[in-house]
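Q: What structure does this chain adopt?
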Amino acid sequence: MLLMVSAVAMASMTSCSKEQQLLGTWSGKVDGMDISFTFTDGGGGTVKSRLEGTTVTGTITWSLEKSEV
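A:
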């Protein structure tokens, strides 16, 4: 899942800082499950997944370890 998010983040690079490029909500489907990650400034965020009418949400923390493209 994080590989998918990373690929989308790299594909949308602009002149903003690497952290700013990641901020926002990223969503997609993995094995029939809808999933979204919301990355907020300061290294926090949420994850939400939905499969067959069941929704699970949680909080995440994140940081960038490398800034290579």
